[in-house]
Amino acid sequence: MKIGILGGGQLGRMLALSAYPLGLSPVIYEATPGTCAADVAPVVIGSFDDGKALADFAKSVDVVTFDWENVPVDSVKPLSAWVRVAPPATALAQSQDRWHEKTLFRKLGIPTPDFAKVDTRADLDQAIARIGLPGILKTRRLGYDGKGQAVMRTAKDVERGYAQLQGQPLIYEQMIAFEREVSLICVRGRRGEIVDYPLAENVHEQGVLAVSCAPYIKPALHSEAAAHVHRLLGRLKYVGVLAVEFFVHKGHLIANEMAPRVHNSGHWTLEGAVTSQFENHIRAVAGLPLGRTDVTGHSVMVNFIGRMPDRKKLLSVDGLHLHDYGKSARTGRKLGHATAVFATPARRNQARAALLALRRNDQ
Amino acid sequence: MKIGILGGGQLGRMLALSAYPLGLSPVIYEATPGTCAADVAPVVIGSFDDGKALADFAKSVDVVTFDWENVPVDSVKPLSAWVRVAPPATALAQSQDRWHEKTLFRKLGIPTPDFAKVDTRADLDQAIARIGLPGILKTRRLGYDGKGQAVMRTAKDVERGYAQLQGQPLIYEQMIAFEREVSLICVRGRRGEIVDYPLAENVHEQGVLAVSCAPYIKPALHSEAAAHVHRLLGRLKYVGVLAVEFFVHKGHLIANEMAPRVHNSGHWTLEGAVTSQFENHIRAVAGLPLGRTDVTGHSVMVNFIGRMPDRKKLLSVDGLHLHDYGKSARTGRKLGHATAVFATPARRNQARAALLALRRNDQ
């Protein structure tokens, strides 16, 4: 069975590496030659706007899935004439636009920061009058890892931020003074069966995920998150991995955003859970039974951004698992991550400190 | 760093899949196009007797290693002029010939079944007179998975067996009425550091490994095995994974054979140990620090031979990890294996029974 993956970054690479042991054949569709998934799987090069090339690709595989949620929805929709597409194009469409996404959350009773659509300067003033400062002005589309965002605390921030982002559809969001950030990775199979991983606790640096630890053990919060995400999965008739990031605020969850794909905050599952998010995504889209999501211990995942620490130093760290994406170094680029799994949270936290020190010194 | 692998079967495939997350680039050298490692790594096609092609391959990589121990030693020896070769050609040479192998074991004080070199019918008669029946007549070279062997219990077996195997260098070995078969997987790094996995208990069917369970918890036997294998590693100035199979007989170990490569009886380490034998072999030959070999629980590994059970049925088994080699079905061919890891030996044994039933019904 051929698994077509639109997008050939590190997520596509790790999806491909998970497909082989299942006896499945991954094939990547990518606009840019030489991306890191090309090291591990055959690649078809084509534009994501080229309907003919995408249709040819779709006809050559048994299912189409994604390593990148910003594939143009108009390019994806026609593909289901040829082949099963999972997750569905509607899920992509919802997640590509922050305003649609938050509107969907609200419809399903999932708490979100207060928000308002901003097309003009007058819209922004009204939004600030209603929601207040501080807030965040964001592009509705194509923002990720803190890009396309302006934090607004003062009138000066408002001027500067609007000048920077105007001219495209925007959204103004209430800024939440959250206690923690957590995420839930859920998987829904073709027959509607759902498994989910325990919550991970995430720390971002300059808008980019730096560290995840799992499980984040708050059973009540897990149930709250799972109830929210299961509603989303059902509404979207979803198949595959869906990740939702939440703020923990006054002991409850506020949804920040969703990603209709495997997610950086689920990378700990590679060694920290019985079945990784990558394998479970492949199982789901291929129509295979889902694998167990129990943890194998207390995990830490640390991202390497811009520069990889020395490989020998990393592999000297007791119990460390390296996931190098095989990319060349570039400022701000995610180049790899490491995970480690321990019997107790205390030992995990020691390892986290050691890994963060290694990351600081070497980056 | 490019890791050149001579041989492109399932071991090469799993070595390649382990190299990518370390940020290393595997390249396969293989005589036959379309072997299963070709799905996951670039392949150079060439004969194992073609010194020029092998030298060109060696010059194009940073280290040469093996998925197959029967690469002609005369082809391997010149390669070290161009590149590091690990394990060393001398280890290949010793393991390619059962008489040299057992003679080395004896020199190092490692108990073996009694044995004698057989070049003529008179040699065989003398060997039987000294060692007795039952015994096994084996080809000294190129035997594996029970091929090239004749069990001799009666005078008639002796006639038939000799007629079948004569005309090539042979060895006659005492047949051990063993209680169990176990194996030790050891890894030696470039600086001489050694890690070893706990013993696995193996069950063969018709000369082919069917099931391994690990850890086989007999601390005294582990120490005995480790002492033997560490002597071998030192003598051979070995780098990489070395597997040695032992019979357990009257509470002690008798060495059966060694394999200078990752080994089927170590496949349980993929999920059953912190670092798999494949990753540790790659770490060793690449000169990287070795990874932890502690177990993650009680593992079972079941081989699928000749035919793969239905994929959906397999993946419905709770906690099962599938490793499908992507080969076409053929009688007697190893097509894949499954592993599962449990908190207790009792649960592991239940799962083993369920897996064996599935294997019987579906094969």
Structure, described:
2 copies of one chain form a homodimer. With 363 residues, chain A is an alpha+beta fold. The first copy, chain A, folds into 3 domains: 2-85, Rossmann fold (3-Layer(aba) Sandwich), CATH 3.40.50; 114-174, Dna Ligase, domain 1, CATH 3.30.1490; 180-362, ATP-grasp fold, B domain (D-amino Acid Aminotransferase, Chain A, domain 1, 2-Layer Sandwich). The first copy, chain A, has helices at residues 10-19, 51-59, 73-76, 89-96, 98-107, 121-131, 155-165, 219-235, 269-272, 277-285, 311-316, 345-362, and strands spanning 2-6, 25-30, 43-45, 63-66, 84-85, 115-118, 135-139, 149-152, 170-174, 180-188, 194-196, 200-205, 208-214, 240-249, 252-259, 298-305, 321-324, 334-342. In chain A, strands 10, 11, 12, 13, 14, 15, 16, 17 and 18 form a 9-stranded antiparallel beta sheet that branches. In chain A, β14 (240-249) and β15 form a beta hairpin. Chain A binds chain B through residues 13, 17, 20-23, 25, 39-40, 274-275, 283, 288-289, 291-292, 296, 308, 311-312, 315-316, 318-326, 336, 341, and chain B through 13, 17, 20-23, 25, 39-40, 274-275, 283, 288-289, 291-292, 296, 308, 311-312, 315-316, 318-326, 336, 341.
